[in-house]
Structure formats: C-alpha cells, structure tokens
Amino acid sequence: MAEGEGLVSVDYEVSGKVQGVFFRKYTQGEAKRLGLVGWVQNTSHGTVQGQIQGPTARVRELQEWLRKTGSPQSRISRAEFRNEKTIPVLEHKDFQILK
C-alpha cells in the first residue's frame, strides 16, 4: 500500500441485467485482481449488492468497473455507492460470493 494511502469501505448496488450473467463471479475476479476484500450477492429484486474494502485508489478502480464494465453479458443501468468511510483495518479476509 502506498505511503499515506488510507483504507476505505463502501457499499454498492448495481442495477440492470446483472443476474444470470456471471456478474458475481467476474466481480470477485476483478476485486481479487485489484487486491480488494469484501463480498457480492444477488438480491431478491434483481440487483447485485455488496461491499468493497481496500486502498482508496483500488476501490475507485473497482467502482469504475462496476459502473461501466461488469461481466461480458451484463448490461449495467445504474451503480450506486453509499456508506463510504475510512477504516483502520480491513474487516474481511478475502472477496466472497454470498448466496
């Protein structure tokens, strides 16, 4: 982690065609590639939600990926981020897909 770069935690929810298109698997892969921790899960109302934690710059990269890229067959209509806060230590060990 770069000197002076803090850790952040942010919750997210992505809307559009994001279920049944391997969105969770690709999100997990991208998060792990960036060295982030957290979780992702489908919701009962057709969206995908979760939490990201890690160095601010890397979290911003995943936010951009969730906003614009997603899995190859997904169609993202909206990505919302909330509850962003600075954290002293990571609260998760890895990035998990929750059922």
Automatic annotation (TrEMBL):
MF annotations from Gene Ontology: acylphosphatase activity
Annotated keywords: Acetylation, Hydrolase
> Which EC class heads this enzyme's classification?
hydrolase
Catalytic reactions of this protein: an acyl phosphate + H2O = a carboxylate + phosphate + H(+)
What highest taxon heads this organism's lineage? Eukaryota
The EC number(s) attached to this protein equal 3.6.1.7
Catalytic residue positions: 24, 42
Q: Where is the Acylphosphatase-like domain?
A: 9-99
Q: Please give the InterPro entries that the UniProt record associates with this protein.
A: Acylphosphatase (IPR020456), Acylphosphatase-like_dom (IPR001792), Acylphosphatase-like_dom_sf (IPR036046), Acylphosphatase_CS (IPR017968)
Kindly give the Pfam families that the UniProt entry links to this protein. Answer: Acylphosphatase
* PANTHER family according to UniProt: ACYLPHOSPHATASE, ACYLPHOSPHATASE-1
**What's this protein's family per the entry?**
Belongs to the acylphosphatase family.
Query: Know the name of this protein?
Result: Acylphosphatase
Species this protein is from? Patagioenas fasciata monilis
